[in-house]
Design brief:
The protein has ten helices and eight strands. The chain is an alpha+beta fold. The strands form two sheets. Strands 1-2-7-4-5-8 form a six-stranded antiparallel β-sheet, sandwiched between helices.
Amino acid sequence: MRQRPRGDSRGILDPERLLREVRFRRHLPAESLRPWIEHYWLIDWALSAPFEQRIVPHPAVNVVFQRDGDGPETGEVAGVGRDLFRITLAGTGRVCGVQFRPGGFHPFWRRPVAELTGRRLPLPSGRLTLPGAPVCAGTDDDRRSALDALLTAWAPTPDPATAEAVRLAEAIRTDRTVLRVDDLAARHDLPVRRLQRLFTEYVGVGPKWVIRRYRLQEAVEQAAGGPLNWAGLAADLGYSDQAHLVRDFTAVTGVSPAAYARSVH
C-alpha cells in the first residue's frame, strides 16, 4: 500500500504555472480508505486576476468540495471525463478533492460507474450526501480528517471485483509496456470480453480507453520536461506512427505537442 501520495504531474497542463498561481498539495486518506482512494487534493487561492487551469482527466472519479470567497460550500461527484477539463479560478477560494483509484468508486456508488462517465452531479446524490459541516475549513489536517469521516460514513463495501478492477488499472498505469487490451487480458489470464465488462462496470470506461489515456498523459508529462524525439516516443507508447500521437495529443489537449512544449518553456 502506498505510504505517500504520488508526486508526478500527470494530467496537469503546465504544472509549473499551477504551482505559481495556487497552493496545491496532496495527502493520503486514512489507511482503511486507501484500497479505493488515490489521494486527497487541496487547492487554496487568492488571485489578483482570473486563472484558467486545464486538466487531461485520469480514468478516475473525483468527489469535489469547493468554496469561493465567503459563499457556501458546494459538493459534486465528477465521473471520468473523456474531454479536456477547464476551470477558471478567481478571487479567493478553496477546493478539497478526493481522487478515487480507477475502479475504486464502485463500493461507494454501488451501481455501474459508467452512469457517471462524462457527468458532474451535485451532492446530495442518492446515498452520497453533503456533510453536516464544511469540509474546506481549517488546516490541512482538519480537512483531511473531515474527508476521512465523510467517506467512512458512506460505508464502502469491499468486493473482489472492485479489487480486481483497481489492480488491473494500476497495472496499466505503472507498466508502459501495456499497449493493447488483448495483451493485458493474456497477461492476467482473462477473456477480453470479461475485461471489457469489468472496466465498464467498475472504472466507467473501457480498458482500451484507459491504456490510451495513461500513455497520452505520459506524453504530456514528457513534453513539459524538454525536447523530445516524438517519433521514438510514439513507438514507445504504442502508436502506429508519430502522426497518430500528434492527432491524439492535439484532440485531447487542444494544442499540438510542439505548441504545448513551446508554451511551457
